[in-house]
Each structure stands twice: as C-alpha cells, then as structure tokens.
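Repro:
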Amino acid sequence: MSREHLLLHTGEDTIHDPKIEKKNLSPKDKRKNFWFYHKWHIVIVLVVLVFAALLSKDFFNRVNPDYEIGLLTKTSFPEDAVNQLQEALAEKAVDRNNDGQVIVRVNQYVIVPGSGEELTSDGQAASAPAEGSASASSSMEGQEASSQYVDANMQMASMVKFSVDTQDDQSIIFLVAEDSIDYFQNSYHLFAKSDYSSPDMESSDTGDIGIPWEELPYLDGLKLTVQSWDDNYNDIEVDVTDSFRELRVCIRDFEQLSHKDDQATIDYYNDSKELLESLKTK
C-alpha cells in the first residue's frame, strides 16, 4: 500500500491542539496554565503599580514649608530640640502658601569653617596636624582640635546643601554659631546688618550682623529639650537651650540674593523680615 494512501483522511494532528487541551483542563489546571504563560506580565504590572503608588504617596504627602531657615553650626543639634524650635517658630509665622497649615523647616548645615582646606581631592578628610605644630596652631586658633575635623562625608554633604540653599534663596533667615559668623560673612557676604541694610563689603567687622539669640525675647523665652536617661536608666528631660543661645539670628542681605528681581523672592524676603520682627516680642 502506498504511503500516500496511509496518510489519506487521517486528519490533522490534534495531540497538541490548544483548543482541545483547553477543553480538557480542570479549573485548577487552567489557573496553572494561565500563570505559566502570564506570570511575568503580572509581575511587571504589579511592580509598575507599586512604584506608581509610592510616587503618588510621596507626591501627596510632600511637605511644602512656608519658611526655611538655615542652621549653620560646627556640630549637629539634637533633632528633637530642632523640631521643637520649628514648632515654636511656626507659632509666629503665617500660612504663606495657603495650604491650611503653617510649617517652618530648619535645615541643619554642619560646617567647620576652613575645614574644607583639610579635605583631600578624593573627598576624604586629611589627618589632623600634630598638636603644637605650626600648622596646627594656625588652623586651630581659638578652636579645639576635636571640633575642627569633622566627618568628610557630612562636611561635603552640608557644603553642597548649603550652596544649593544660598543659590536658590531657600532660606532667608539663618541661625549662625557665634564662632562661625566671621567666616561665613567674610567668605560669602551673605547677611545684612541688624537694621536690614547692606554691610560694607570691604569691612571684616561682623559685630552688627544679625541679632544674638538672647536679644530676641521670643527665642530667649524658649525651653528646648531632649529625652535622655540617668545612670539608673530612668527617662529624663535634658534642657539643651544653652546650645541655641550661642547662635546669632541673621537675615540674608537682599542685594546678595540670586533672585532678588523675582516677585516671589521679594514677597518671601518681606515675610521673613516680618517673622524676624515678631521674634522681638514674646
């Protein structure tokens, strides 16, 4: 018998016909089959949905402060105390963006004046000069060695954020450590005199720059604390207000603002002046 006759009317191969396979599958097998062919599609869709949800949450929960205030110090201040200060300042501030809440954000910039010179080209801190050496006496003048050399990463991060702040006019008011005011004013010419006028650019005298914390009754009346524990591990409240009394409240020199011709910046500056003026009364 010829080969053609054997194959005649045999019909199509139905062993792997998807339609027949589908008809013969149980509900459980159908679910397994669906997962086998579509699992990566489902995983990708889920990842996209989770990512979109996170972005949406971040967008809708993003806090848009009415004011930002820079805190320029050599060491970081306790976060709890800074949060208390933010809340206290908000009591004197106004809802500038009309979102129904008044928020003042204090941005900490931990910068040791002159320590950038001790940073190597790869961003690592150079070793401190030996105590008593000529280089040590010149760089440590009036300061302790322990505070002069800070973590290189923290120093560089603070410098970058501080630079962005000043370039974008984010903070109009700054709280500056008394022993840092000379460096920042003479290096950057950032701040106005206590009467808001521009200082002499040729003068290195910073005595009339800003207002000492203790001369502002509202600030001087604050009590800023942190939670700690005693030798018996009992919770105690520690008053850290004295650290803040070493600050001077400064306002940016309007003429040195990057966007002084922008109306939004002008309004922000005037509102910041009003906030500073309000601190002169309890």
